Amino acid sequence: MTDGRNSMMAGGSGLAAGIMNTIIKEDVERVEVVLGPNSALYGPNAHNGVVNTISKDPRRYQGTTFAIDAGNQSVLSFRLRHAIKLSDKFAFKVTAEHTQGNDFTFNDSVYVGNNSFYGPVRSVPEIVKTFQFKHQRGEAALYYSITPKSDLIVSYGASVNSFLAVNNVGRNQIDGWRFSYLQGRYVSPRLFAQLYYTWTNVGDSYGIASYTRDYTNRLNSTIPATTLGLGPIVGKLTPDEAQTNALRFGNRFKESSGRLNSEVQYNNAWDNIGLNMVASLSYQKDSPNTFGTSLADSNVPGTEGSNLILVEQVGGAIQLEKTLPAQFKIVGAARVDNHSVFGNLFAPKIAIVKTVKDGSFRLTYGRANAAPIILFQSANVFGIVFGNGSGVSYVPNGANPANPEAVKITDKLKVEQIGTWEVGYKGTISKKLYIDVNGYYGRTENLLSPAISVGGRALSVGNINIPTQNLLIPGTVTNNALAGAAFSTYFNYGQVDAWGVDLGINYYFTKDISLGVKYSYFNSDITDDNIKNDANRDGFVSAEEKSLNTPKNRVAATLSFQNLMNKKLYINLSVRAVESFDFYSGSQIGTEAGAGKRGVVTATLANGSKVNYFKNFNYGPLGGFTTFDVSAGYVLSKTFTVGAAMSNIFNTKQREFVGSPLIGRLFSVELKAHVPYKK
């Protein structure tokens, strides 16, 4: 969230805006993080936590700020913020940023060939158009004070982005992806209301792996393009023809999606009885349109479908907070939503807080819902990943594709339901020691899986048919039996328990020297070899179905020196350690076993036969590194400050995600000027 606005992408992806968000760092006042299930107040998909970025009010943060950053990898960034209070009624701000640089050079392996007319199955390096990334973003906001205590705020923001992005199939060349919003807010002590619209347009973005595969295969085909029947579909092409074919819609994305949100929130307090109340109503309408290039919303990729996807959610919530004797406080909240696909959803939350001297103990229970995002429901990506909102029709390996009775349908997705107990303490132990510790135990019904392999030939997603020639792994038919076909989709596990501990410690040696340490432990019974973890219902729990996909242990520490050299210098020294862990999602794999060769997952079917699901190249597990960082800043004058930072000082091998380069040493310097506004 940003300023209370849902800043997830509109449309099919359902992803956070992340580096495509429109806010610049000079306009960030603070970031609020609320952990755990929070559907009760924040909506049906706030199931694991909420991050809300709050921007600066131009009436309290006036003036002009300009910053320039430069660093290795040819990184260069310019940022501007200008804010003025024009009168007692009006104020405005504008921000802008241009950032560019080069990603670390890395060409993932793409598997081409079919042991037939495309030649032997082999790996080739992906064809990357450019390793340069570029982000241009900006916002404008007008504040109007209706009364001294009530404001009307209208804001608009947009960004245009180009970079390399990883998905569960390979990497995407993001080229001109546009993200924008228009928001109106009414803010007063008792009432908050907002109405906003969010747009997503993917520009000329495309899938690198599918582009590389099709370009290479058609360039090396042994079948002349003039051959009747197969020629136009799989025949040999010239380089220019192969380029055009490889960039067709389906490999190239097309999307023009939008989302409408509205919310009204009322709060009141009755101090005489120690009661506070917050009540809200909200509405959301998602209108994705990917022209059949990433969702099953058109039978002809690149053209608008006749029956576009529409998802609506309407809900209401109430929270009551009551102070009790002996410094106890109880908080209760409940939310009811109606989802146009998944029906009515209920999410309660209750917390008991006990204040003890300079701290407080808390015990909470929260239940939240995660409706499958539109991508999980209706995906149709590169002929390999399909949505499971209505079930995927397919012919399993070993069956006769010509027999209608052989067709199966996957169990369609249900809403994920999370219930979590938490106990914790936060407070000052002594004048120098502050601690925040909590333990949690959660049970999830219908846990949504990452994309998991299915052995068979996909036929349709809902009412959208999938031609065999559009499948990445269609398999072969011998003696009326299908073999070697595969696709990926999303499933629900039956029930999964998870538990963990988060610990934060801050120790102040002096008022200007402090040490902060954060430790996190997480575990789950999803790692058990239990048939309940058979998400794709093939009778076998494969390695990808019981992978935690996250480290069990993580620790980070920062030693801070503030107000040095006559309060002009600060220095931060940081260390971060991440435990090694295996990762599976769709075609992506990163594991210790099998590292250094093509990834494969072996499953033993109910009849005792073994089947291999081939993945992308396996570069090894993620994590397994300890990195050191340093940052410093110095006040040159009332106007100018200078800063410098270096991450991964010792150039440790740091792979943060599958299909991504090793992140090496990064350093940057920053010069910032701030000129206060004088009326």
Describe the protein:
With 679 residues, this protein is mainly β. Helix 2 (208-220) packs antiparallel against helix 4. The chain has a 22-stranded antiparallel β-barrel. Strands 19, 20, 21, 22, 25, 26 and 29 form a 7-stranded mixed sheet that branches. The model has no long low-confidence stretch (mean pLDDT 91). It is 6% helix and 53% strand. It is globular, with a radius of gyration of 27 Å. The chain has 6 helices and 40 strands. Strand 9 and strand 10 (171-187) form a beta hairpin.
Topology (SSEs and partners):
Blueprint: E1 28-35, H1 39-42, E2 49-55, E3 63-71, E4 75-85, E5 90-102, E6 109-112, E7 122-125, E8 132-147, E9 150-166, E10 171-187, E11 191-201, E12 206-207, H2 208-220, H3 231-234, H4 239-246, E13 256-270, E14 275-287, E15 311-324, E16 328-339, E17 343-356, E18 359-370, H5 374-378, E19 380-381, E20 385-386, E21 392-396, E22 408-409, E23 416-428, E24 433-445, E25 452-461, E26 464-465, E27 476-478, E28 481-483, E29 486-489, E30 495-508, E31 513-524, E32 553-563, H6 564-567, E33 569-578, E34 583-585, E35 588-590, E36 597-604, E37 610-618, E38 625-635, E39 640-647, E40 666-675
Helix pairs in contact: 2-4
What's this, in brief?
The protein is mainly beta and about 675 residues long. Helix content is about 5%, strand content about 55%.
Uncertain segments: none
Count of DSSP strands? 40
Give the overall form: globular
- Round the Cα radius of gyration to an integer and report it: 27 Å
How large a portion of the residues is in β-strands, by DSSP E? Answer: over 45%
- Work out the helicity level: under 10%
